[in-house]
Amino acid sequence: MAARLKERYEKTIVSELLEEFNYTNVMQVPKLEKIVVNMGVGDAPREPRMMESALTELAQITGRRGGIRRARRSIAGFKVREGTPIGCMVTLRGEPMYEFMDRLFNVSIPRIRDFRGLSTRSFDKQGNYTMGLREQAIFPEVNIDAVARVRGMNITFVLKNSRAIEESIALLRKFGMPFRN
Asked: How much is the CA Rg of the chain, to the nearest whole Å?
């Protein structure tokens, strides 16, 4: 069975965007290519168990096992050497991507305290959107009692065929992303 947001994209969102932006071809419509979830683990060089717990929490949240990211170069100010593990990340595509996005918009984001909507200033020049979360406890999949340390994460929505930020905002808004007015 296909993901709910994927069916909605194929059946309604594509036709709405075709009409709204006067595209001549269906292939011109912006499309979500992938979602990248990145979690920094700054205390991993001193405590290797923190990286394991971060990978476990990331796997619980996304449903996929993450990969370890290592430092590209040494930075003395941060006490980091080249090749030291400093974070973990997961790239989601296809069905798992749409399922994660559905859970994020409808279950997790409403659990954020004093939430007033996401900023529309976090788009880059290509139309990709990056949002930051301060804690992983907003996800219902994570057992709060088992969390060793509260960590934040970055979630990047990579869009394809997006020529302007307005197109990206329209697509993500139709998916249900709660932007500020």
From this structure: 18
Tokens of 101: 């996005």
What CATH code is carried by the domain that includes residue 165? Answer: 3.30.1440.10
Residue 158 domain flag: yes
Residue range(s) defining the domain that contains residue 120? 4-175
With beta carbons less than 8 A apart as the criterion, state whether 67 and 60 touch: no
CA 168, CA 123: separation in Å to the nearest integer?
Answer: 8
Residue 96 structure tokens: 């798992």
**pLDDT, tens only, 26-52:** 999 999 999 999 998 877 667 878 888
**Is residue 181 included in any domain, yes or no?**
no
Which has the closest alpha carbon to 35: 115, 117, 103?
Answer: 103
- Does 169 fall in a domain? yes
pLDDT per residue as tens digits for the range 50-67: 888 889 989 999 999 989
Helix, strand, coil percentages (3-state) for the chain, rounded to 5, are 40, 20, 35
The CA distance from 44 to 93, in Å, is: 28
Please indicate, yes or no, if residue 48 is contained in any of the structural domains: yes
Number of structural domains in the chain:
1
Which of 113-132 are b and which e, b meaning 16 or more Cβ less than 10 Å from the residue's Cβ? eeeeebebeebeeebbbeee
